[in-house]
Design a protein that fits this description.
The protein has 317 residues and is an alpha/beta fold. It has helices at residues 16-31, 34-37, 54-60, 112-126, 165-186, 206-218, 238-242, 264-269, 273-295, 297-309, and strands at 2-3, 45-46, 70-71, 74-76, 84-85, 87-96, 135-142, 153-162, 189-199, 233-234, 247-248, 251-253. It has two domains: 2-85 and 201-309, 3-Layer(aba) Sandwich (Aminopeptidase), CATH 3.40.630; 87-199, Alpha-Beta Plaits, CATH 3.30.70. The two termini are 17 Å apart.
Length: 317
């Protein structure tokens, strides 16, 4: 599988160009040997990974029918077995109050911005009572037009993250309750909308990953586990795919160590020599891994058995 969309501001600050080229390279190479190796390759270029859930849309339309395993490499500043991809869903909250002149008749107003601010602060208080692996990030989208007019409209947008798709469902109502409390305090009304589909946590198939690690190692890449190196935390719709078929999502070094993704610096690195090498090595490692899978009934059994035993949630679409 591949991703290819650029970011609106930084361009390929997430290295999707590297991901796309590596995936395509692997698919082209595998297509020439698939029949003789007893396998079949399907290359899926997936749009809108940055919040749009393109892989989910494609899966809902049958893109994974007949697929035994799925894999992709993701650009990074280090070679890692996986990303700590945690579950994510986006939330839009809108507050409605009553406009009034802030100096002449403030008593007639109901301040929607105050409601949003209090909701924001309630979430800040909630953070001390959530799991260390959970994250809640929010921004203000709207909050009035003029300082002398009591804002009748305000809105905030949130990303809610938790370690698994199940624990995310438990966290969501707590966040909503905190955000709604601001409206109650200010005499405003509030509505919320969960936007898009929830991104699930990534369930790495270690048996499949072991094949990739060995193959990447033969190309000179020392693929480390996040715990032995460092954690890379984020969310991706590849997590949902990993609940449907055995999957891996290794990180491949395409940038200098210490270069953070989603930055202009990473976008610059994504068109450099390290990125070019990551494309070639990523394509080779994935192609070699697919061939190992096709030609080893032992590997097939181990990968399938691990997937069956894993704590996956088929209700992720």
């Amino acid at each position: 599988m591949s991703e290819y969309d650029a970011l609106p501001e930084s361009g390929h600050g997430c290295g999707h160009n590297v991901i796309a080229a590596a995936g395509l390279g692997a698919a082209i190479g595998l297509a020439s040997v698939a029949t003789s190796a007893g396998g079949r390759v399907r290359y899926l270029g997936t749009p809108a990974e940055e919040g749009g859930g393109g892989k989910l849309v494609m899966a809902n339309h049958g893109a994974l029918e007949g697929v035994d395993v799925a894999m992709m490499v993701h650009s990074a500043d280090a070679d890692l077995t996986s990303i700590d991809a945690i579950a994510l869903q986006q939330l839009l909250v809108e507050y409605s109050g009553r406009a009034s002149h802030a100096a002449a008749a403030p008593q007639h107003g109901r301040n929607a911005l105050d409601a949003a601010v209090l909701g924001y602060m309630a979430v800040a208080a909630l953070r001390q009572h959530i799991l260390p692996t959970e994250r809640i990030h929010g921004i203000f989208l709207r909050g009035g037009d003029k300082p002398n007019i009591v804002p009748a409209d305000a809105a905030t947008e949130w990303y809610i993250r938790s370690e698994t798709i199940s624990s995310l469902q438990e966290l969501k109502p707590r966040v909503v309750a905190a955000l709604e409390s601001g409206a109650h305090a200010c005499g405003c009304s509030v509505s919320h909308q969960w936007t898009g589909t929830a991104y699930a946590d990534m369930v790495t198939n270690n048996s499949l990953a072991a094949l990739y690690i060995a193959n990447a190692g033969s190309l000179g890449r020392n693929v480390q586990t996040p715990s032995s190196h460092r954690r890379v935390v984020g969310s991706t719709d590849m997590g949902n795919i990993s609940h449907l078929v055995p999957s891996i999502h290794p990180m491949i070094a395409s940038a200098r160590p210490g270069t953070s993704i989603h930055t202009q610096e990473f976008a610059t690195e994504s068109k450099g020599l390290l990125a070019d090498k990551a494309v070639i090595d990523g394509a080779k490692a994935m192609a070699m891994t697919a061939i190992d899978y096709w030609t080893s009934t032992q590997a097939q059994s181990a990968i399938r058995e691990e997937f069956v035993q894993a704590n996956t949630d088929k209700d992720v679409l």
